[in-house]
């Protein structure tokens, strides 16, 4: 759900219970969905890519999307927003501003300058690695994890393990899009997950 300051009311995302959504909420979500562009055969043949750049270019759409991603966690006294390279940085920085918190990047291997911890995750062919600065999270920090898309969940699961290794408290994860048919939620255990737009197939 999300708070629309212009209306002074709470609105709900597609990952919330449909019974709590009124016609205004559904129209807002339909508008956001209309700003996501399908691109066939990208980055390789047979894949339909969900392009978020039209949404990013729409000032009202971008503001509403980031508010939807933020609102469920406003009452939890978040200390840090941790976001995953690279599109996650766009939303992570905006959400950190919304919550008046610090921002911590999780980056691909070799791109952070100071001492890091890293985690590998499995790809279709081989593995990849993400890293975080060792001094970026203090013991007990309440951390919100952010990315643009939840797909198979490998990157998010690796990032969650890094947060936990640094003794942060992972209080939730929030996404603009969720490809629900890939069941990425199963990779983050009991962590509360918020997604604004869900794709079932």
Summed up, the helix count is 5
Q: From the 3D coordinates, which CATH architecture would you assign?
A: 3-Layer(aba) Sandwich
Write down the domain tally.
1
Strand content: 25-35%
Strand neighbour order, sheet with most strands: 7-8-6-5-9-10-11
Explained architecture:
The strands form 3 sheets. The chain has a 7-stranded mixed beta sheet with strand order 7-8-6-5-9-10-11, with helices on both faces. Strands 1-2 form a two-stranded antiparallel ribbon. A two-stranded antiparallel ribbon has the order 3-4. α4 (87-99) links the parallel β5 and β6. By secondary structure, it is α/β, with parallel strands linked by helices. It is globular. It has one domain (2-199): Rossmann fold. The chain has helices at 23-34, 53-57, 59-70, 87-99, 154-165, and strands at 2-4, 9-11, 37-40, 48-51, 80-84, 102-108, 116-122, 127-133, 142-150, 169-179, 193-199. The chain contains 5 helices and 11 strands, in the order ββαββααβαββββαββ.
Question: Can you summarize this structure?
Answer:
With 201 residues, the chain is of the alpha/beta class. The chain has helices at 23-34, 53-57, 59-70, 87-99, 154-165, and strands spanning 2-4, 9-11, 37-40, 48-51, 80-84, 102-108, 116-122, 127-133, 142-150, 169-179, 193-199.
Can you give keywords for this protein?
disordered N terminus; seven-stranded mixed beta sheet; 27% helix; globular; 201 residues
SSE topology sketch:
Layout: E1 2-4, E2 9-11, H1 23-34, E3 37-40, E4 48-51, H2 53-57, H3 59-70, E5 80-84, H4 87-99, E6 102-108, E7 116-122, E8 127-133, E9 142-150, H5 154-165, E10 169-179, E11 193-199
Parallel strand pairs: 5-6, 5-9, 9-10, 10-11
Antiparallel strand pairs: 1-2, 3-4, 6-8, 7-8
């Amino acid at each position: 759900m999300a708070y629309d300051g212009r209306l002074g009311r709470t609105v709900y995302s597609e990952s919330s219970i449909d019974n709590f959504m009124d016609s205004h909420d559904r129209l807002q979500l339909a508008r956001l969905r209309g700003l996501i562009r399908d691109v066939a055969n990208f980055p390789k043949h047979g894949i339909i890519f969900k392009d978020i750049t039209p949404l990013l270019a729409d000032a009202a759409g971008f503001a509403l999307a980031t508010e939807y991603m933020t609102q469920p966690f406003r009452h939890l006294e978040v200390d840090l927003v941790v976001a995953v390279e690279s599109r996650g940085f766009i939303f992570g920085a905006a959400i950190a501003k919304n919550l008046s918190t610090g921002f911590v990047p999780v980056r691909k291997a070799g791109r952070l300058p100071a001492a890091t911890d890293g985690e590998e995750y499995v790809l279709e062919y081989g593995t990849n690695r993400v890293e975080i600065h060792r001094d970026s999270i203090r013991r007990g920090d309440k951390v919100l994890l952010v990315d643009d898309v939840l797909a198979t969940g490998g990157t998010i699961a690796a990032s969650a393990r890094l947060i936990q290794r640094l003794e942060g408290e992972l209080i939730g994860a929030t996404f603009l899009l969720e490809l629900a048919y890939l069941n990425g939620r199963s990779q983050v255990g009991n962590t509360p997950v918020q997604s604004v737009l869900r794709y079932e197939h």
